[in-house]
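Running log. JK asked me to keep both predictions on one page so they can be read side by side. First protein, sequence followed by its tokens:
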Amino acid sequence: MGISFRCRIRQNMDNEGGGWQAPVNAKNGVDGMVEEFVGKNSVWETTKVDPAVRRKLQLIKDLQGAQKRGEMHIAYQPKINPYKQQIVGMEALVRWEHPVYGRISPDEFIPFAERTGTIIPLGSWVIRMACLQLKKWHSAGHSQLHMAINLSAYQLQVEGFVENVSQILQELELSANFLQFEVTESADIYYNQIGIKRLHELKRLGIQIYMDDFGIGYSALSCLQRMPVDGIKIDRALTKQLGKDSVYQMMKAMIQLAQGLRLKVVVEGVDSDEKMSILKKWHVHEVQGFLFSQPFPPDELTQLLDQIGGDEG
């Protein structure tokens, strides 16, 4: 089944839109980033530049068309109900296997994708593929699984984005209630009226909105008040330090705040039984982490679902 995204990026937004600007196209965005590193009119392939800079420039260049060349794939990490020990959902995580540099971390290439505009076609592909995979799992009997997908603030500037998401759901006969978008708390979204408007439109479709990386980003409490969120996802950077008393108290307060606002709480980075015990005591809704499973290709997770089940919401 083919699903195409026909979208245009809004350019030169006014103050109400937050002043956000995107490159007219990916090529212009790449050229602009090259100029930042080596200067205008420089041919970086033949210019003597620092090896680290050369690597970045090569990644920026190669990011264009990487998905079409088959270098991109999606891994899925289970989301666990901590009380029933069941898989209740998956998070779609894009991976880049570069032919020269090997696996490139999303923390490295996603900012390049956002700066160059490549995030628009790449993000569209991830949404389409993740929804297709979720439909396969539903058809295989795991009918209550939900899918979480990371959403860039830049994608929310695309005209027709909400309509295209709705089209995918309709063509796959997939209920919007099973789809979650995770948006990082940042100034890019907080000050952007168009982005917030589109989040409201997605929520009206029935899609759930989660604030990702909660607790380490931009003005978390203000974002909760301003944005139409259904839940928060506490970042693994905090979970990693849960043994420290200051972090323990901070996470406890954040979870209590979210629960007081009737928001769901997901905690990622859970890697020990001790942390799991604490989080269960705090009544979090879902957990992720290497204690249960690392991200895997869909075929391997299908086997896991068949073994342990994944039907309870």
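And the second, directly underneath as requested:
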Amino acid sequence: MKTAGSKNGKIILIAPAESTINSYLDHKIDTNNDASTRHALAALAVLAEETGCAILFIRHHNKTVGQKAMHRGMGSVAYTGVARSVLMAAKSPDDPDQRFLARVKGNLCAPPAVLSYEVEPVGKTSRIAWTGERPDLTADAILGTGKKPGKQVADLESRLEADRTAVCRTLLAGPDTKRGIREQCAMGGTRIKEAIETLLEDGYVGPCNVTKNGAQLDGFKLLETTGTKHRDNQDSPGVF
């Protein structure tokens, strides 16, 4: 941490993330376990906050074909969970010379369109040549695990964002249980579950204990930084 701060570094690149991180961790830490990996990565979050550095992980895809993009990175899904932004570079399944850069997860800005590019030779080296945007694609669609955006998918995404906003508005009044949130939002259990799960993944809400009628129950609360993120980022639930 002192070294990073003293050199006024702007970015710390860790590649490949799995083997590099593993080489510095205690053998008792299982990097395939979500909770264990999150605990290990907490020190890097402190490093980023104290030095102002951006920390960039480079990960490879695992061999499990058919998984959604969120789960295709090697190692624990905690790498994806703790990150503010996750991008995926992948070849086109239809054209081996065509490649895509797609958003997998992000809570820093509005979802950008997938970018297409090619690697073209330049003398003895090569460079990236951007070839345009592909708003018809998503990371999951590129991997063959999701539908291309159409009216039905767009409607579902719009509904999910509305559900997320409703959950956040409810939690502005204070922590509550899933049942309590469901009653306040007047929506089905499946929709509440999906909204809460995505809010947890994106870091807008967190688990907590809620006392009701003298009993300690599992619940959820807005995180302390949620208000700032909602105001500053178009991608966040529109609570304010």
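Observation for JK regarding the second prediction: The chain has nine helices and eight strands.
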